[in-house]
Amino acid sequence: MIEWEDIYKVVAAMAPLYVALILGYGSVKWWHMFKSEQCDAINRFNCFFIIPFFNFEFIANFDPYNVNGLFLSGDVISKALLIVILVLWANFYKKGNFSWSITTFSLSTLNNTLVVGVPLMKAMYGKLGVDLVIQAAVIQALLWLTSLLFALEFWKTKMNSNGNSVELASISDLEGNNTSVNPVRNNTNNGLAFRPLIKAVSIKLAKNPNTYACFLGLIWALLANRWNFEMPIIIEGSFLIMSKAGSGVAMFSMGLFMALQGKIVACGAALTIYAMILRFVVGPATMALGCVVLGLHGNVLRVAIIQSALPQAITSFVYAQEYGLHADVLSTAVIVGTIISLPLLIAYYAVLDIMH
């Protein structure tokens, strides 16, 4: 049973995020310290320097020989199912488009496994919960964030290649009006041919440190755990001095973005509700389906469902802002979702305990 002390520990992990957020917001809104291009530079610094160091350092200290294969398989099945649905929607539904498929994938699958997930899972399920949520964080960094990067780079490259043939993704998809928010492209018959497009995307990803930081960390983890050696202190310290700034700089950057937008909830009520449904309903539902198919049960199944309902990953906003795709929706998902997540997650915990 969760004690008040456990709830305090989770709140204590969340609160510093909002301190950084408020400082970022105030530095533009009240103190006028940064201009728009400077705010973009801060987010780019976080995207291409801090996050790669964070991912490498985190995965390098992970034990890849001690994982729950069924749990990770359930995660892969659930997200693969969602990808198939989104691909079909984008290609065969009249109002479907690629840009909203990417954002929907982010909102449904990418969660804050470390800052919020670790203390919460420790309070709910002890060591088992912590072990599984860390495994989920590793597979998210290795597979799903890398997939998101590929999709974003593909979208941006295709957008730039199509010149003036632009189809505007509009809020009418969800709110019924015609307010344009992001340029997206028509089908792949326009612009670059598919093979040159993939080549262009691959070249850009090869220059992106986020692409290979996770895999270098995994290679180190495999070697270090196989032959029982540790990273030299001077090298580890060099990584830590950058990686420790990850969440703080990301939330600070989000505060800057909010101030530039002029309002805290930049995307409107309908899109906020849409984001919350994806994060706290669709995500856990698809995860439950993937795990049940594999026959998972007991606390492993419960941990799988609850960790998939954790608040939105901060990294998803950083990438969205860098690539210019629905950053307003992702920022709202992080801010609002983190605030309302604790009572919702406790409710999930109680319901699953009663069902057990």
Note the total helix count.
13
What does the radius of gyration come to? 20 Å
- Helix percent band: over 70%
Which regions have little confidence, pLDDT < 50, spanning 5+ residues?
164-172, 178-188
Which structural class matches the secondary elements?
A: mainly alpha
Strand content: under 5%
- Please report the total strand number as a whole number: 2
Describe the sheet with the most strands. 2 strands, antiparallel
Widest β-sheet, arrangement of strands: 1-2
Residue-averaged pLDDT, rounded?
89
Along the chain, the helix and strand elements come as: HHHHHEEHHHHHHHH
C-alpha end-to-end distance:
14 Å
Shape: globular
Top keywords for this entry?
356 residues; mainly alpha; two-stranded antiparallel sheet; 2 strands; Auxin_eff_plant
Describe the structure.
With 356 residues, the protein is mainly alpha-helical. The chain has a domain at 4-12 and 65-176 and 264-355. The protein is built from 13 helices and 2 strands, in the order αααααββαααααααα. The protein has helices at 4-29, 36-60, 69-92, 98-109, 113-161, 194-206, 209-227, 233-243, 246-261, 269-293, 298-307, 314-323, 327-355, and strands spanning 166-170, 180-185. The longest helix is centred in the middle third of the chain and has 49 residues, at 113-161. The chain is globular and about 50 Å long. Mean pLDDT is 89; it is low at 164-172 and 178-188. Pfam families: Mem_trans. This is Auxin efflux carrier component. Keywords: Auxin signaling pathway, Membrane, Transmembrane, Transmembrane helix, Transport. May act as a component of the auxin efflux carrier.
